[in-house]
Design goal:
By secondary structure, the chain is an all-alpha fold. The chain contains 9 helices and no strands.
């Protein structure tokens, strides 16, 4: 999908919205599920989803990634991990490096999804290789995540993950 000026403006606006709600999201680690569910129904999150969903459903990898973030961070309710996984996966399959990292992280944590170190390792490899050389912080983060889970894997699992990453092609 070609990115028009209007499209870029909407994505920028939505990113700004996500950033503006981040302090609220991260200040509530001990909030109850009911409090989180209440916030998830707030106008800001609903508006962001309303604007992002049509773009995401039309295959926009950035919009898909941002919806995954909203589900993972703002909508911490039942099945949010599954919803985040679905949106991250759609974005990651298109080669979005940050979505690939987030998808790998979900497979490590296993919240609302099956823990899968092979898949996590694969997505961390792809994330690191998909990031620009200049993004040293994010590349180091992906490498560190891979190094962190490798002691929990067998050599056969690591080999499998590497083969999966080597044969992966974006949609």
């Amino acid at each position: 999908m070609p990115k028009t000026t209007e499209h870029r403006f909407l994505i920028t606006l939505l990113v700004a919205l996500c950033i503006s709600i981040a302090p609220i999201i991260y200040s509530w680690p001990r909030a109850s599920i009911a409090e989180k569910s209440s916030y998830a129904q707030s106008n800001e999150v609903s508006a962001a989803l309303h604007l992002l969903r049509p773009l995401a459903e039309n295959g926009d990898a950035e919009a898909q990634y941002r919806i995954g973030q909203l589900y993972e961070e703002a909508l911490e309710v039942a099945n949010s991990g599954t919803n985040a996984l679905e949106w991250y996966k759609q974005s990651a399959e298109q080669g979005h490096a940050h979505a690939q990292f987030s998808l790998g992280r979900l497979f490590v944590v296993g919240h609302d999804i099956s823990q899968d170190y092979v898949q996590a390792y694969k997505w961390f490899i792809l994330s690191e290789s998909g990031l620009p050389e200049s993004d040293t912080r994010a590349r180091a983060q992906a490498a560190k995540a891979r190094e962190t889970i490798s002691p929990m894997m067998t050599p056969a699992q690591i080999s499998k993950a590497k083969k999966l990453a080597a044969s992966w092609e974006p949609n």
